[in-house]
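[Discussion] Sanity-checking designs against the backbone

I'm trying to build intuition for which residues belong where. Below is a structure token string of 211 positions. I'd appreciate it if someone posts a full sequence so I can compare it with mine line by line.
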């Protein structure tokens, strides 16, 4: 499995020489954290669209911590689940401000102590901000790695723990960003473009369909 994964990583790197997170956080840890929380059940494009107004009003944890939840709600209203997200953002900002001096922490347990932050968001932050790696088991990662034959589960934690030993730490973040891109361009949910897929000879789903 490791050899197969190494080859898949190599091909995705060749297919997408540049990889980047689709959330436009401008390299700011607080922004990325907030945007990742907002991206649950919402498109990255939508989050990118509301970000300028949100961060013009709340550029850091201190300003968001002292703001009204209703004001956050107004700025994220088009995001879906906006009431729960606004409440989480307010609580998250307060904890960042009060416990972590306004800085986004890097340890997994500290990140998981923040409202609205689960392992997916925590791994994104650890990888993109702190260079610690982390499998971001989002919908694309879960779907594609199941199709390729690495996992047989839709449980994000199971997928994360299955992939973690197979992907070198220093490649995990970019690997996951590339899977998101591949899931949008080629291995599209419900209409995968298998004939033009550069992974088809390694894909369990494709091979079983074409026996
Ligand atoms: S062969 Fe098809 S199902 Fe398999 S990874 Fe490629 S696009 Fe997805």
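Best answer:
Here's mine. Compare freely.
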């Amino acid at each position: 499995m490791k050899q197969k994964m190494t080859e898949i990583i190599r091909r995705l790197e060749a297919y997408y020489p540049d990889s980047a997170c689709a959330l436009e956080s401008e390299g700011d840890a607080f922004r990325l954290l907030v945007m990742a929380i907002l991206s649950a059940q919402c498109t990255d494009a939508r989050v990118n669209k509301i970000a300028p107004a949100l961060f013009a009003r709340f550029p850091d944890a201190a300003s968001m911590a002292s703001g009204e939840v209703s004001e956050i709600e107004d700025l994220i209203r088009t995001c879906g689940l906006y009431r729960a997200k606004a409440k989480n953002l307010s609580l998250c900002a307060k904890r960042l401000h009060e416990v972590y001096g306004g800085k986004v922490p890097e340890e997994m347990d500290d990140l998981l102590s923040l409202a609205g932050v689960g392992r997916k968001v925590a791994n994104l932050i650890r990888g993109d901000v702190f260079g610690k790696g982390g499998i971001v088991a989002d919908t694309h990662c879960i779907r594609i790695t199941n199709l390729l034959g690495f996992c047989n589960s839709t449980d994000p934690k199971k997928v994360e723990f299955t992939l973690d030993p197979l992907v070198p730490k220093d490649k995990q973040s970019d690997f996951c960003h590339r899977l998101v891109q591949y899931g949008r361009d080629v291995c599209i949910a419900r209409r995968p473009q298998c004939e033009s897929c550069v992974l088809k000879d390694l894909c369990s789903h494709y091979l079983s369909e074409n026996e």
